[in-house]
Design a protein that fits this description.
single chain; 390 residues; disordered N terminus
Length: 390
């Protein structure tokens, strides 16, 4: 079993603006047994301490990313050339994240902000201050969406992270089925802001090979490191059913310099017929300035032990025109890694036996699995591309 690279999506994994296919139906008649979720706080008390930030401000730390995801590519003028179709495909991925998942990044970030606000209020109402020193659980004061999951009054279990005293861990538990559907580890800086973290979601009902829901997200992971404003790092990775016969996996990398208001992004995905695992070309790497709409972009090629950036072009936001005007793309932190398809999630059809994800998360009960899969030890390796996923 391979370990997680973590990505990610926005995606490219989970995600705001989900469709009905992304919702997780619960049949109360099928629920058996209960789970020990710690001490449920029943009697609200006045807040006794200031609550630290729970989720970072993604919009501020990744300037321009949300705006790019909402660009209409139908009005972009692409010059005639032998690479015209390739260019159009890259623009579709850059502005709409086509090959990972059609999702609205701004909606994703707004959903996370809303969840953080509700969770922060719930903790304050119950006099729970961060970081916690013992295991405790609360039920959210109102419904909230968790990435592409439907809205629920989640039971949230909080624990100090073993071996990482600066981190807090949360488990998000469905209020009816009592399945663990997500886990989040994060670290606050000296001012109380969140500087590092990893959030993962797994959908037990979509992990089995019997799942036939098109567009159903199986696993989604979001990782970030905002401890250095000259090098803010973000990754979102996911695996989902593209159709009843095929899954796709993909990831989106982003690195931003808040001093120069410049960001670099790259998308990778696999949509080949299983069990063959090949990258879906073209794979764009691109750079943008948050204070204008121009995007410098090119196609990444990974072969053997080499990585090359080809066919660099400039998209001029003011004129909606693609030109061959010279532009440069800075080498991001993951740029030293030569990626292979093994760096993306293993799809369910890629394996002879039952999905590894199903073996890990299928029962929705294992705290140990989440501690292995979502861990402070994996954040840096995920963001620089050095650790393979399972």
């Amino acid at each position: 079993m391979k370990r997680i690279l973590t990505t990610m999506i926005v995606f490219a994994l989970l995600i705001g603006g989900c469709t009905g296919a992304d919702q997780l139906p619960i049949n109360a008649a099928d629920i058996s047994g209960t789970m020990d979720v710690g001490t449920i706080v029943q009697n609200p008390k006045p807040p006794s301490e200031v609550i630290l930030q729970i989720f970072p401000d993604f919009q501020t730390n990744l300037p321009g990313l949300s705006q790019m995801s909402n660009t209409d590519i139908e009005h972009i003028i692409v010059p005639d050339s032998t690479e015209r179709m390739n260019t159009i495909l890259m623009l579709g991925k850059i502005f709409n994240a086509d090959n990972i998942r059609n999702f609205d990044v701004s909606a994703l970030f707004l959903a996370i902000d809303s969840l953080g606000t509700i969770l922060k209020k719930t903790l304050a109402d119950n006099s729970i201050a961060l970081p916690v020193t013992t295991s405790t659980s609360v039920t959210l004061s109102e419904n909230a969406r968790l990435l592409s999951l439907d809205q629920y009054q989640w039971i949230v279990r909080l624990e100090p992270e073993v071996d990482y005293p600066d981190y807090t861990r949360m488990y998000f538990i469905h209020p009816e089925s009592h399945q663990i559907l997500a886990s989040y580890v994060f670290k606050n800086d000296s001012t109380g802001k969140v500087e590092k973290g990893m959030l993962g979601v797994a959908f037990p009902e979509s992990l089995s090979s019997q799942n036939e829901h098109r567009g159903k997200i199986r696993v989604s992971v979001l990782s970030f490191d905002f401890s250095d404003q000259a090098q803010n790092l973000f990754n979102i990775s996911m695996d989902r059913k593209q159709n009843p016969q095929l899954s796709q996996s993909g990831q989106l990398f982003v690195q931003c310099n808040l001093t120069t208001s410049s960001c670099v992004g790259e998308q990778q995905s696999i949509i080949s017929e299983p069990p063959t695992r090949t990258f879906a070309n073209p794979m764009p790497r691109y750079q943008w300035q948050s204070n204008n709409l121009d995007v410098c972009f090119g196609e990444m090629k990974y072969q053997a032990d080499t990585a090359a950036l080809n066919n660099v072009l400039l998209y001029e936001g003011n004129t909606h025109t693609v030109t061959k005007e010279a532009c440069t793309i800075a080498t991001p932190i993951w740029g030293t890694h030569v990626f292979t398809p093994d760096d993306l999630f293993i799809r369910i059809e890629d394996t002879v036996s039952e999905s590894t994800f199903n073996a890990i998360f299928g029962d929705g009960q294992s705290y140990d699995s989440w501690q292995q899969f979502i861990s402070p030890a994996l954040i840096e390796q995920t963001l620089d591309g050095s650790n393979q996923k399972i």
